[in-house]
Known about the structure:
Strand content: 15-25%
Distance between the termini: 27 Å
Radius of gyration: 12 Å
CATH architecture: Roll
Number of strands: 5
Largest sheet: 5 strands, mixed
Low-confidence stretches: none
CATH topology: Ubiquitin-like (UB roll)
Number of helices: 2
Order of helices and strands: EEHEHEE
Strand order of the largest sheet: 2-1-5-3-4
Shape: globular
Amino acid sequence: xxxxxxxxxxxxxxxxxxxxxxxxxxxxxxxxxxxxxxxxxxxxxxxxxxxxxxxxxxxxxxxxxxxxxxxxxxxxxxxxxxxxxxxxxxxxxxxxxxxxxxxxxx
Length: 106
């Protein structure tokens, strides 16, 4: 199973095995990672699962959709690698993915 590293704004790391086919958000919620609320349950209808994808992984996570970009407008502290974790599907190719959580979601 791919391992995803979630880093809280305070630096605390959570390394979690997430099954392929799940989303980065689902892995965080299943393992109670603080800062990923996922209020909409992964429907791309809020921005409470906002993460910063590590720049080394940005290309591998794919492009964000127009709908995701619209929802990111509601997130705080956007960065060039901002994504909604509900829109990043875990595959074996994402083994080692690193995402950081915004301080505003702590």
